[in-house]
């Protein structure tokens, strides 16, 4: 009898203690494509209180993705805001990007940074993780309700390479059309 009641007792005890589970304000929007294709992965934040600059490290699988470039997300892409994405360092499987030069502090929700990758020709189909994080507490200059950007991970999905459908050559199509026209003409 106690075995059947144990889950209920546990749930009742848990309900007595308040849990402070706070969802992190960051999100990653991933993309998908076939090997050789270009994908974009964006880092965004919900409910920004005040944002003026940040240094962000992006980690990825070097066997699946190769870094192509960094651009501003839609939230800070207005040229009047003065933000610039500076690629500080590109390593094997990582890139360090700084968002600098904001003329005014940003509030709201949206994408802050967009990273473009090319999917390697040898990449196998399936998910590949891309993580955004603060390189260290000292270099993370973002002004959030939390002291640093927590590691936030998204997924790039590598699709199967498409198999080309063989198309008949033009000569065969012409011959087939002429044969059909000849048969129709003989019958009439």
How would you describe the overall organization of this protein?
The chain is of the alpha+beta class. It has two helices and ten strands. The strands form two sheets. The chain has a six-stranded mixed beta sheet, with no helix packed on it. The protein has a four-stranded antiparallel beta sheet with strand order 1-3-8-5, with no helix packed on it. The longest helix is centred in the C-terminal third of the chain and has 18 residues, at 170-187. The protein is elongated and about 85 Å long. The termini are far apart.
Describe the structure concisely.
The protein has 188 residues and is of the alpha+beta class. It has two helices and ten strands.
List the helices and strands and how they pair.
Elements: H1 2-16, E1 26-29, E2 32-33, E3 38-51, E4 54-60, E5 65-72, E6 84-91, E7 94-100, E8 106-119, E9 126-133, E10 152-158, H2 170-187
Parallel strand pairs: 2-10
Antiparallel strand pairs: 1-3, 3-8, 4-7, 4-9, 5-8, 6-7, 9-10
Give short descriptive properties of this protein.
188 residues, 10 strands, 2 helices, single chain, six-stranded mixed sheet, alpha+beta, disordered N terminus, four-stranded antiparallel sheet
Sheet with most strands: strand arrangement: 2-10-9-4-7-6
Number of strands: 10
Query: Please, what is the average pLDDT?
Result: 76
Regions with pLDDT < 50 over 5+ consecutive residues? 1-24, 141-146
Q: Between the first and last Cα atoms, what is the distance in angstroms?
A: 89 Å
Task: Name the assembly state.
Answer: single chain
Spatial extent as radius of gyration: 27 Å
Percent of residues in helices comes to 10-25%
Order of helices and strands: HEEEEEEEEEEH
**What portion of residues belong to β-strands?**
35-45%
Class based on secondary structure composition and strand pairing:
alpha+beta
Shape: elongated
